[in-house]
Amino acid sequence: MSVSYGRFTFGKLVAVLKGAAILAIKADSAGRLGRISGTLKVRNKGELVVGRNVSFYAKQFPSSISVAKGAKLRIGNNVFFNYGLDIGCTKSIHIGDDTIIGPMVNLIDTNFHPVDRDDRSMSKPIFVGANVWIGRGVVILPGVTIGNNSVIAAGSVVTRDIPANVLAGGTPAKAIRELNVSDDWIRRTK
Ligand SMILES: CC(C)(COP(=O)(O)OP(=O)(O)OC[C@H]1O[C@@H](n2cnc3c(N)ncnc32)[C@H](O)[C@@H]1OP(=O)(O)O)[C@@H](O)C(=O)NCCC(=O)NCCS
């Protein structure tokens, strides 16, 4: 389709409408959505709650959200997701208000397979606080809590809790330094 008006093409309009409609239909509750572009696949057999002004930019690579039966995914207000997102929620994932999720980020609250015969804890909830910035290519593993305002550097694998107000990075991710933030400061502009 090549109909265009200035820089806004008909294709873009369809993508925005399609993505927004699919998310709104598949969610149990959704606030007024922000911008959705590209391909966002949503499979919801549990509970999906999406806040106000949540945006998905899924152009270079598609994004995928999967919520299993009995699981709960809660996305706060004013959250931005970059492309290549992969959320696998089998128990509980919470993403706080004003959080920014970089490209190719993976949040999974289950290991899907037991490590050995003694492994009884494949699924554990993930909690990402408010005003957090998750860098490109980060993997957040089951059972992790990330405190408010913290930043997870690109390419990190987060295996243990990260406190509030720190830059953390590496594999496994560790706090690197304290951040200069205040309660009223929000990284993502609205
Ligand atoms: C988060 C980020 C911006 C931090 O930058 P910064 O505050 O300037 O940090 P610095 O470069 O001063 O590094 C501080 C320390 O963290 C380490 N560090 C930085 N990035 C790291 C990473 N990705 N993994 C592991 N350690 C990292 C540095 O080596 C340095 O350690 P040192 O003091 O022992 O030398 C940067 O790490 C990053 O991830 N950038 C990519 C952001 C991104 O993904 N953007 C996509 C769009 S959302």
Automatic annotation (TrEMBL):
* UniProt keyword list: Repeat, Transferase
- A Gene Ontology molecular-function term? transferase activity
Matching Gene3D superfamilies: Hexapeptide repeat proteins
Name the PROSITE patterns for this protein. HEXAPEP_TRANSFERASES (PS00101)
Q: Which domain of life is it from?
A: Bacteria
InterPro entries xref list: Hexapep (IPR001451), Hexapep_transf_CS (IPR018357), Hexapeptide_acetyltransf (IPR051159), Trimer_LpxA-like_sf (IPR011004)
Q: What is this protein called?
A: Acetyltransferase
Q: Species name for this entry?
A: Cohnella endophytica
